[in-house]
Amino acid sequence: MSIQLPLKERMKIPRQKMPEQNPADRRTNFQEVNFGLPDEIAMREAQRCLECKAEQCKAGCPVGVKVREFIQLVAAGDFMAAAVKMREDNVLPAITGRVCPQEDQCERVCIVGKKGEPVAIGNLERFIADYERRVGAVGLPKNAPPTGKRVAIVGSGPAALSAAGDLVQFGHAVTVLEALHEIGGVLTYGIPEFRLPKQIVRDEVDNLRKMGVVFQTNVVVGRTVTVDELFNEMGFHAVFIATGAGLPNFLNIPGEQLCGVYSANEFLTRVNLMKAYRFPEYDQPIYDCKDKDVAVIGGGNTALDGIRTAVRLGARNAYLIYRRSEKEMPARVEEAKHAREEGVQFMMLTNPVEFLGDDKGRLRAARFVKMELGEPDSSGRRRPVVIKGSEFEMSLHVVIIAAGNKGNPIVQASTPDLKTTPQGYIIADPETLKTSKPGVFAGGDIVTGGATVILAMGAGRKAAKAIDTYLRTGQW
Questions:
Q1: What is the arithmetic mean of pLDDT over 290-310?
Q2: Could you give the residue ranges of the DSSP H alpha helices within 238-300?
Q3: Whether the Cβ atoms of residue 387 and residue 369 lie closer than 8 Å to each other
Q4: Residue 260: which of 356, 353, 189 has the closest Cα?
Q5: Is the domain of 193 the same as that of 258?
Q6: Residues 149-183: pLDDT tens digits?
Q7: 192 and 270, same domain (yes or no)
């Protein structure tokens, strides 16, 4: 086991590098890019923690993980105890350790990062979750005695799963209702295999099953069953709506109806749920990318997921086209770095104005304009402005539009006493996540619009506490 080094020695340890696949190799497969930290390297990275009493890292975590405590356990070599400590606040550590933007949250406020690189909190989080998988044991928390109360959770994405994990620990009976045939929401249909393997999601869902959470697939709340029926016919005492923001935005330009133009939602869902990444074992259910010119329109993580997927499907040329500069891109720096290494060509300050088709209705090209940055807009980023006379045409066979999402309206349309915003998002109290309908709570992207996995999980935890209070007191 590790012997803790003196403070001055710990401050000299450089941040340990994450081993990863060679870019030339990973361009041709859907295997995970990052390999994970070996035991000794993880312990050495954990030694970099200065054990600050202020615990700014914990405050920077949307789910309140006890970062200092679990890292101390990693440094001491007690990996299972570290896993138990992590799961007190985070029921999905193998997932968040892979896709959470730690650099903007816990690592951003790490004291070690003031004079160098912050402690690799995310990599250590992933390490302990992978250790559980390796040894075949999981540090599951214990549940409180049964309360006799039943909670239905609509959706099975990160907000739903996080809420389910906390609610079952409080002693409530929890049933998660998922419209699709696999559990996980955006974790399953949206994030590619090379960033988040499907088996990782299934394993974390199985851990929730072991805790007592019940999962039902192919249940479209609003069609198969209504929210009112969940209360009246099925006997649930509270409902948490966590359906996410799965309805894609489009650009509303000519030619979007052409064959070969996809929303990122459709493209990634076809690849992930319909297993195009396992072609030819499964028929590839998308317009063929192989030896074609492919572009994604957008600058977020979803855009990078889409174009890096196209690379692995054999794209001849792969372009990321974004109307602002790279500095304004909301995507993670690591994902942009990986994309460049894999051959994605970045075209900044560029925006499409029309998609052009052939005589069979298939995409053959797109017309673009160049942009320059003007004054900041409501997002705080400089607004892109068209440069007159800059129009040009480029040959393209597949375009993936990653322009954000909005809430799917099915639940809201079938629940008339559920108040929504003009954009279709459910209105919920920011502290309690209570909606206009007694007994119904809502959180995650269906309330806030598209956000990160960890922010959705934070909403799930907040909802679980509020639901627990409501079920115990009966006060709305």
A1: 96
A2: 264-272
A3: yes
A4: 356
A5: no
A6: 999 999 999 999 999 999 999 999 999 999 999 99
A7: no
Binning pLDDT at 50, 70 and 90, where does residue 310 land? very high
Q: Does 258 share its domain with 379?
A: yes
**Planar angle of CA 212, 409, 305, nearest 5 degrees:** 75
Say whether both 86 and 22 belong to one domain: yes
Phi then psi dihedrals of residue 88, to 5 deg: -60, -30
Residue 311 lies in a domain: yes
Distance CA 338, CA 18 (A): 13
> What is 112-167 written as a DSSP string?
GGGTSPPP-HHHHHHHHHHHHHHHT---PPPPPPP-S-EEEEE--SHHHHHHHHHH
Give the total residue count for the chain. 476
Domain count, the chain: 3
Boundary-marking domain end, from 403, 425, 447: 403
Transcribe 202-227 into DSSP letters. Answer: HHHHHHHHHHT-EEE-S--BTTTB-H
Residue 351 lies in a domain: yes
Q: Are strands 363-376 and 350-357 parallel, antiparallel or unpaired?
A: antiparallel
Using the 8-state DSSP alphabet, how is residue 31 labeled?
Answer: S
Nearest to 77 by CA among 50, 38, 24: 38
Tens of pLDDT along 12-55? 899 999 999 999 999 999 999 999 999 999 999 999 999 988 89
CB 286 within 8 A of CB 262: yes
Residue 257 counted as domain residue: yes
**Boundary-marking domain end, from 356, 371, 403:** 403
Q: What CA–CA distance (Å, rounded) separates 368 from 364?
A: 14
- Domain extent, residue 25, equals 7-135
Return the CA Rg of the chain: 23
Residues 233 and 299 in one domain: no
The strands making up 214-216's β-sheet, listed across from edge to edge, are: 214-216, 173-177, 150-154, 238-241, 440-442
Residue 106: CB partners within 8 Å, gap ≥ 6? 57, 58, 60, 61, 65, 67, 121, 122
CB atoms closer than 10 angstroms to residue 49: 23
Kindly state whether residues 70 and 184 are assigned to the same domain: no
DSSP assignment letter at 327: G
Whether residue 145 is contained in a domain is answered as no
Q: What is the dihedral of CA 11, 12, 17, 18, to 10 degrees?
A: -30
